[in-house]
């Protein structure tokens, strides 16, 4: 699933954010950043995916 999210973060950043967090403020920010420019949307999506995975790992330990 992580690979799918990373690929979709590059091709369609809001999809990656939706797959990671569902409908949230992060999705709205991702849509706005992608509309302003594709690269800011990619950066935000990759950052959000990474931070979400870090939080999930912290909860396990």
From TrEMBL:
Keywords assigned? Membrane, Transmembrane, Transmembrane helix
InterPro entries with a match to the protein in the record: PMP3
Family matches, as PROSITE patterns: UPF0057 (PS01309)
Question: Keyword Ubl conjugation: yes or no?
Answer: no
Note one Pfam family from the annotation.
Answer: Pmp3
Please give the GO cellular component terms listed in this UniProt entry: membrane
Which residue ranges traverse the bilayer?
A: 28-49
Where is it localised? Membrane
Q: Record keywords: Glycoprotein included?
A: no
Family recorded in the similarity comment: Belongs to the UPF0057 (PMP3) family.
Please identify the protein, giving its name as recorded: YqaE/Pmp3 family membrane protein
Q: Which species is this UniProt entry from? A: Myxacorys almedinensis A
| Biological classification of the source | Bacteria, Bacillati, Cyanobacteriota, Cyanophyceae, Leptolyngbyales
């Amino acid at each position: 699933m992580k690979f799918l999210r990373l690929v979709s973060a590059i091709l369609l950043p809001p999809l990656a954010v939706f797959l990671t967090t569902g409908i949230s403020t992060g999705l709205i920010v991702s849509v706005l950043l992608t509309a302003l420019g594709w690269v800011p949307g990619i950066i935000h999506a990759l950052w959000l995916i990474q931070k979400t995975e870090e939080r999930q790992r912290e909860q396990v330990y």
